[in-house]
What we know:
- The chain is an all-alpha fold.
- Helices cover 73% and strands 0% of the residues.
- It has one domain (62-253): MetI-like (MetI-like fold), CATH 1.10.3720.
- Helix 1 packs across helix 11, helix 6 crosses helix 8 and helix 7 (157-164) runs antiparallel to helix 8.
Amino acid sequence: MKSSRLLFGYALAYLAFLYVPVLVLPLFSLNNSAFIAFPLAGFTTRWYAGLADSALQHALVNSLKVGIATALISTLLGLTAARAVTRYRLRGANAALGVISLPLFIPDIVLGISLLLLLGTLGLPLSLASVVLGHLLICVPFSLTVLIARFEGFDRNLEEASADLGEDGWMTFWRVTLPLMLPGIVASLLLTFITSFDEFLVAYFLSGTEATLPVYIWSQLRFPARLPMVLALGTLILAVSVVLVIFAEKLRNQGVKKPVVGA
């Protein structure tokens, strides 16, 4: 009994350590003062009015372009790779998965500097396209993880039944596999989009003159008077990210076989 209470207390302390600082963000975004300190000066929404800034909107559009392109390409690559790994016996598949997942274990600053040096050596300009390239290295492993779990989560007998009824491999994929994979595909799109949209370090090194939203936010932190507006923007991004992650997780779990208790 005592150990369970200690474990429960530890869990609460751990959650508080993770999320209380995040909850401070929306609190100070509504504070009627440019200074981030207690006690609060009052309630206001005027910092949210500053989000109509043209430079901010341009950075937002850049992040949306990069996020959508990264999500589409990484999900397409993840879908084909996940199908190959789960449906065929490929020599060296585990080693390939390890190499694909390697960027997740490399610090983003090292990854960003390495890509910057590579693009400079090849003579390629820094642009939003180079940011997409860098984000693909980070997002493809996430997409692959989600889609492999999805492929392994539905009944393969449905594909075999389709083949027995005379459908070729492509039509079986189009009529059977794809509809069953759709929740996982949508979940992959959402998760990779969020990952790309929020990523800073790689975008900082590769964006050149076309700043993404996280890079723009970083640049505004130099000006104390702009800090409350940054908090307001961060609050909106946090809210949208939480909603998308919850939605993606629900979609990912739809239709996945669950173990039968007592089986």
